[in-house]
Write a structure and sequence with these properties.
The protein has 145 residues and is α/β, with parallel strands linked by helices. It has three helices and six strands, in the order ββαβαβαββ. It has a six-stranded mixed β-sheet with strand order 4-3-1-2-5-6.
Length: 145
């Protein structure tokens, strides 16, 4: 069975060397949808009886590992040295250094990597991340299987 939950956050980024306006510093109201797959609990005495996992438990994991760290942060590519250096001059600025350019595609892949690792640790392979959908705008998104 698959279940999906959605959370939203705000963050800034830029795409260095982009051919148009995305090369400038800007922000988005991102949304992340996480689809988890696994068996439905059949233990009648379990809190999760009839569920794959409680939605609130999935949301808390996503919030702790992706949403809170990225919310109201500037997400910057590690090799975008001018911006990294500038952000380092701002006291107490919330900056997330990304190993790749922070496109919707790469953000979805990075969220998948982070959450997949955590789900493997917590649930011993019983629950898996099936897909991450990262909305950069309401009409544009990337899916990481």
């Amino acid at each position: 069975m698959d279940i999906t939950t959605r959370l939203e956050f705000d963050a800034g980024h830029r795409i260095p060397n982009h051919k148009s306006n995305c090369k400038n510093l800007h922000g988005h109201r991102y949304a992340i949808e996480v689809t988890v797959t696994g068996p439905i609990h059949d233990d009648r005495k379990s809190s999760d009886f009839g569920m794959v996992i409680d939605f609130s438990d999935v949301k808390q994991i996503i919030k702790d590992l992706v949403v809170e760290p990225w919310d109201h942060a500037f997400i910057v590519y590690q090799d975008d040295k001018d911006i990294v250096n500038f952000l380092n001059t701002l006291p107490n600025h919330k900056t997330v250094i990304f190993p790749v350019v922070p496109t919707a595609e790469n953000m979805a892949s990075e969220a998948h990597r982070i959450l997949n690792s955590e789900f493997n640790k917590r649930f011993n392979g019983q629950l898996k991340i099936k897909q991450i959908r990262m909305y950069e705008t309401p009409n544009s998104w990337a899916d990481a299987p």
